[in-house]
Amino acid sequence: MEQENKKCFVICPLGKDNSEIREESELVMELVIKPAAEACGYDARRAIDLNIPATLTNMIISEVINAPILIADLTSGNPNVLYELAIRHAAKKPAIQIIRDGEQIPFDVKDQNTIEYAIKSKRKRNEAIIKIIKQIKSSEADPTINNPITIATTFEALAKSSDPVEKGYAEIMNRLEEIKNIMLSTGEQEELNAAAIDNSSAGFIAPSQKRASTNKAD
C-alpha cells in the first residue's frame, strides 16, 4: 500500500468563487506551494480543498494547530491569515511565510523569514519553490520554534528568573529590541520623508509653466 503523504495546511487569501483573489490563490497553489510540498512528501491543502465551510472556525483552527507543516501566504495582509498564523505561533508549531513579490510584510512578523514569489516569473517561482523546500527540511531537522510569541515568552521567563545570568540575557534582549525598533522607526521615517519629497516634486509647477498654462486658457 502506498504511504499517504503528510499534511501541509495552507492559509491564504481565498476570495469568492471566480474572483481575481481566488484565481491567484489557485495559481500560487499549483505553481509554487504544491510542487514544494510534494517534493518533501507533503500534501498541501487549503480549507476549501478539505471541504471545510468557512463558518466552521473550530475545524479550521484544528488544522492550523495540528498540521505538521503550515504555509501562510501573507499577500494583501488578509486578517484571517494573520489571525490563524498567530494561533499557529501560539501552538509553537513550524510555519513558513510567503508573500507576493513587492508587497510589504506585516510589521509583527517582519523579522520572520518570508519567501517572496512572482507567479509570472518562472525563475522567481522556482526560487520560491527551492526556498520553501529548504524551510520544510529545516523544520523537520530542527524542531526549535522561534516566532514572536515564543521569543516574548522566553524573554519574560528570563526577566523573572532569579538567576543573574538569565536576567542579564533578558536585559541584553531588551536593549537589542529597543535598538531594532529605533532602526525600524528611523527607516520608516526616511521612507516617509522621501515620499513627501517625491509628492511635492510631482505637484510642483514652475512659475513659467503656470504662466504658459494661464495663457493657453485665455
Describe it for me?
The longest helix is centred in the last third of the chain and has 40 residues. The protein has 2 domains: 138 residues, Rossmann fold, CATH 3.40.50; 44 residues. The protein has 7 helices and 5 strands. α1 packs across α4 and α5 packs across α6. The chain is globular and about 55 Å long. The protein is α/β, with parallel strands linked by helices and 218 residues long. Strands 2-1-3-4-5 form a 5-stranded parallel sheet, sandwiched between helices. It is 58% helix and 11% strand.
Brief sketch in words of this structure:
With 218 residues, the chain is an alpha/beta fold.
Helix count from the secondary structure assignment: 7
DSSP strand (E) fraction?
5-15%
Largest sheet: 5 strands, parallel
Overall structural domain count: 2
SSE class? alpha/beta
Strand line-up of the largest beta sheet: 2-1-3-4-5
What is the end-to-end distance?
Answer: 86 Å
Task: State the total count of DSSP E strands.
Answer: 5
User: What sort of overall outline do the alpha carbons produce when their principal axes are compared?
Assistant: globular
What's the alpha carbon Rg, rounded to whole Å?
A: 23 Å
Encode the helix/strand succession as letters.
EHEHEHEEHHHH
Proportion of residues in helical segments: 55-70%
CATH class of the largest domain: Alpha Beta
- CATH topology description of the largest domain: Rossmann fold
Provide the CATH architecture of the largest domain. 3-Layer(aba) Sandwich
